[in-house]
Amino acid sequence: MSGCVTKEVIYRPTPQTIPQQPTTQRTDPLKSHTFAGERLTASQRVSDLVYEIERLNNNTAYLEIDSNQNVQVGAYLNISVTPNRAGYLKVITIDPNGERSQVVPNFKHNGYLRANERFYTNNSKFALKATNPKGLHYVVILFSQRRVNLAVQQGMSGYNGLESDQDFINILQSINNQNYGKSYIHIFPMRIH
Fold it and tell me: Under DSSP, is residue 51 helix (H, G, I), strand (E, B) or coil?
């Protein structure tokens, strides 16, 4: 697997006012990233969603994240997360069409991590392979002291419904506002080819 690696340690307890509704006339350019010399650009819908998530930067928890970001279909995704406090991890992917999939928690891992416990996706208990569609994907890492129940795929019940992009942003704002305790939200690009 070739590509770049994200390793970021963040602790930013600076409050920021977040608008409840995304602006209807976005002036931000489309999100684009270069992987192995190939420039990929997100659709308007995905770019708007990514900008809204990036604006949620009131992180009050500390996480160390490592990831491969240039992955072939069928290859393993390597995502590693280590928190400084106990809490609940959620990993959500956004594909080039804007469709979201919850990767963690799942039937193999409930998302709970103890302080300084390392979670990683490429091991004997939890192997996550890259699948179609090819193109520019985004990975959203959520971490909170209290469990956040999300439903990002059809057919899940008993959870906060995330049928629209705005529903997704609203629950992220709730996490960011520390309604679930100390929290961390981060998004990064990933190319699947």
Answer: helix
pTM for the structure as a whole: 0.79
CA distance 19 to 21: 6
User: Residue 103 is part of which domain span?
Assistant: 5-11+29-192
- Compute φ and ψ for 171, nearest 5 degrees: -70, -35
Q: What is the pLDDT of residues 81-106, one digit of tens each?
A: 999 999 999 999 999 999 888 888 88
> Cα–Cα distance between 63 and 59 in angstroms, integer?
10
CATH number at residue 172: 2.60.40.2550
What whole-number distance in Å separates Cα of residue 39 and Cα of residue 54? 20
- Asked whether residue 16 is assigned to any structural domain, the reply reads no
In a domain, 179, yes or no: yes
145-192 pLDDT per residue, tens: 988 876 554 444 444 445 688 888 888 888 888 788 888 899 999 999
Domain count, the chain: 1
Q: Strand 70-71 and strand 183-192: pairing?
A: parallel
